[in-house]
Amino acid sequence: MTTWTIQVFFDGDCPLCAKEIALLRRADRRERILFTDISSPEFEPSVYGRQLSDFMDEIQGSLPDGTFLTGMEVIRRLYEAVGLGFLTAWTRWPGASQLSDGGYRLFAKNRLRLTGRCTPEACDLPGAPA
User: Fold this and answer.
1) 127 φ/ψ sector (left φ>0, alpha ψ -120 to 50, else beta)
2) Total domain count for the chain?
3) pLDDT category of residue 122 using cuts at 50, 70 and 90
4) Does some domain include residue 13?
5) Nearest Cα to 78, choosing from 14, 11, 129, 27?
6) Model confidence over 69-81: pLDDT tens digits?
7) What is the DSSP letter of 116?
C-alpha cells in the first residue's frame, strides 16, 4: 500500500533546491513524500517516460495514480503533504496564483545561473537557460 501522497523529482546539485528539500524531509514525519534526486547517477528519466531536460526545466511531481504535476503546483502539494499548506495557501488566490506561478517559472528558467552552475555545457542543455 502506498503511503506517500506525492513523489518529488528534485535537483540535489542545486544548493537552493537542496535546502528546500532538507526542510521538507525534516517536516515529513509521516513519510508522505517520495524524494527522487534527478542528479543521482542511478536516476533514469526514461522510466517515467521523460528526458532529463524535462526534469531540469522545472520541478516535477508525480501522484500515486501516475499523474504528473509541474512548477508551483508541486510545491503547493509538498507543503500540504507535511502539514505546512498554510505557507503556500495564498499562492492559490486569484492574482497571487499567476504571480507565484510566473515567479517560479522565472526562477526555474534561470536556476542554473542563479545558483552559480551555469557553464557552457550545462546551459547548452535542451531547455536550459542560455
Assistant:
1) left
2) 1
3) low
4) yes
5) 27
6) 999 999 999 999 9
7) T
